[in-house]
Write a structure and sequence with these properties.
The chain has a 5-stranded parallel β-sheet with strand order 2-3-1-4-5, sandwiched between helices. With 203 residues, the protein is of the alpha/beta class. Helix content is 55%, strand content 12%. It holds the Pfam family CoaE.
Length: 203
């Protein structure tokens, strides 16, 4: 099995940008958000269960999952959120571990926003945290998702604190700089880590 680098960070921290930079260096990336979409694709048994439970309001006209509608329901309702998590998390975990076991490269970047919260750190050889100031997180995430500030604050509150996340980190990429300037900075950090991970993967 490949050496597993768990990449995590809060909402709006820049995890996808950083994962893409590793992909550009030829390394495979397994992204929990993509796997989460795969397990609820149109026509999947899990999507049917979700629609049965929440009603057709969570489906688009194409019969696909309307994530925004579902997010609005569950983030303000603890018991519904728990029901959804109990349904999805085991299926997502199983699919991710299957994909990880099939990787043939020296190392793999495993992107999981809730790596710590869902106790998945045990499956990682090393943990890379993308660190960003909370106010920058809020600004970036609200621009990107066009979500209400309140919804993003709820998502941030559901994630572990910045301090706790950093306590798990073997490596940290700081991503607080403005976009263009920040990109050069993180490209340099990713290149350095890539060399380090190739060495570690050989041990």
């Amino acid at each position: 099995m490949a050496y597993v680098i768990g990449l995590t960070g809060g909402i709006g921290s820049g995890k996808t940008t950083i994962a893409n930079l590793f992909a550009e260096l030829g390394m495979p990336v397994i992204d929990a958000d993509i796997v989460a979409r795969q397990v609820v694709e149109k026509g999947s048994p899990l999507l049917e269960k979700i629609a049965e439970h929440f009603g057709s309001q969570i489906l688009t006209s194409e019969q696909e999952l309307n994530r925004t509608a579902l997010r609005q329901i569950v983030f303000n309702n603890e018991s519904e959120k728990m029901w959804l998590n109990n349904l999805l998390h085991p299926a997502i975990r199983e699919e991710m571990l299957k994909q990880l076991s099939q990787v043939k490269a020296p190392y793999v970047i495993w992107v999981v926003p809730l790596l710590i919260e869902n106790k998945l750190t045990e499956f990682c050889d090393r943990i890379l945290v993308v660190d960003v100031l909370p106010e920058i997180q809020l600004e970036r995430a609200s621009k990107r998702d066009k979500s209400k500030i309140e919804t993003i604050k709820n998502i941030m509150a559901a994630q572990v604190s910045r301090e706790e996340r950093l306590s798990y980190a073997d490596d940290i990429i700081e991503n607080n700089l403005p976009l263009k300037q920040g990109l050069v900075n993180i490209q340099n950090q990713v290149r350095m880590l890539h060399k380090q991970y190739l060495v570690l993967a050989e041990k």
